[in-house]
Design brief:
By secondary structure, the chain is mainly alpha-helical. It is 65% helix and 3% strand. The protein has a two-stranded antiparallel sheet. Strands 3-4 form a two-stranded antiparallel sheet. β1 and β2 form a beta hairpin. α3 runs antiparallel to α4 and α7 packs antiparallel against α9. The chain is globular and about 65 Å long. The two termini are 21 Å apart. About 3% of the residues have low confidence.
């Protein structure tokens, strides 16, 4: 949702096969994803699966961040963790702080009754742990709170936790596996598969409810004095939602935009475009049909938790393939001015739209 790229000049040392050029098609893909999420949050019944735009963002982030790390390692045989994190915070924190400030002022002036209840939301937002806070207090998307203006920060928390942890992992992995990137990509793909299997095993099918005194609960973990909704925890959890990030990371090891122009795939742009259009049709079909919950939020969609996220991730990879092949038409179509305008502002649109809706 927030990973952006710049284009190094051809004369710099970064102009190798892992150099990451500006790819307008990816901005267009971001634009489609954020519009889908905004429509879903507006409760339009004709796009019940618009929340899958977040999964598209996760796959894009995993792909781009891993590309950047591979490219930096190719140039300097090291990864400057301090500079990496500093760039992320410079990009992410100012807009986040502005949103938190505006919401704080609004709550104080117009909604003081929620001021005490909102403190945890603000702390979770500023420290990028909103997803775990929401799991802990039972504030998932199936909960019934009428006014939760920072609920959407859960996905930014997942991404930021990825930005903190993934460079550390890649710094160690690339020292051993840089010359075997396809093999590394295969391992990351199987990590995504393992996460999908784990989610399917833990998912609770049928009605989920919290029993009263002397009554059994269904679909909840008892953690100390807290009752944790299992399906909400799977939807919001860092590990359970890392599947898309790992799919993107795996793809980055075998699908580097500059390397494509040096191999046989450079002449297969038409076939890549076909694959990308199939991916776009697939994700649109899922967004139009893949509801999250039904029956007042007590029944979760089993198809989503038993492979739906994984399939959405695969469709995202198909679209990324087309958007990053610089000789194809798919990237040109997605890179039209309107979609590109939305995509370059997707982080801000995502940050502000939910509080405005609330």
């Amino acid at each position: 949702m927030s990973a952006r790229l710049t284009t190094p000049s051809q004369g710099t040392p970064s102009a190798g096969i892992s150099r990451v050029p500006y790819l307008p098609g990816l901005d267009g893909l971001r634009g489609i994803a954020v519009v889908a999420v905004m429509i879903y949050h507006a409760h339009h019944s004709w796009l019940p699966g618009g929340y899958l735009g977040v999964e598209v963002f996760f796959v894009i982030s995993g792909y781009l961040i891993t590309l950047l790390l591979i490219g930096e390692y190719e140039r300097s045989k090291t990864i400057d963790l301090r500079q990496f994190w500093l760039r992320r915070f410079r990009r992410l924190l100012p807009a986040l702080c502005l949103v938190l400030l505006i919401v704080a002022v609004y709550v104080t002036v117009f909604y003081p009754v929620t001021r005490e209840e909102s403190r945890g939301d603000f702390l979770g937002g500023i420290f990028y742990v909103s997803n775990w806070y929401q799991i802990f207090v039972g504030q998932g998307y199936a909960s019934s709170e009428a006014f939760v203006p920072l609920r959407h920060l859960w996905s930014l928390a997942v991404e930021e936790q990825f930005y903190l942890i993934w460079p550390l992992i890649m710094a160690g992995v690339l020292r051993r596996s840089y010359k075997r990137l396809p093999e590394l990509g295969l391992k990351l793909f199987f990590v995504a598969v393992a996460i999908t299997v784990l989610m399917a095993v833990l998912f609770v099918d049928g009605p989920v409810y919290l029993g009263g005194a002397g009554e059994a609960s269904r679909g909840y973990w008892q953690v100390g004095s807290r009752n944790i909704n299992i399906n909400d925890a799977l939807y919001l959890g860092t590990l359970s939602r890392a599947g898309g990030l790992m799919l993107g990371a795996a793809f980055a090891t075998i699908w580097r935009p500059m390397a494509l122009l040096r191999g046989p795939i450079k002449d297969k742009a038409g076939r890549v475009d076909v694959v990308a259009w199939i991916g776009l049709a697939g994700i649109v079909a899922m967004m139009a049909t893949m509801y999250l919950t039904e029956k007042a939020g007590s029944v979760y969609n089993p198809w989503l938790y038993r492979g739906g996220f994984f399939v959405a991730g695969l469709f995202s990879l198909m679209m990324i393939a087309g958007a990053t092949h610089q000789r194809g038409r798919f990237g040109d179509v997605l890179g039209v001015k309107a979609l590109r305008w939305i995509g370059t502002r997707s982080y801000g649109l995502y940050l502000f739209h939910w509080p405005v809706y609330q």
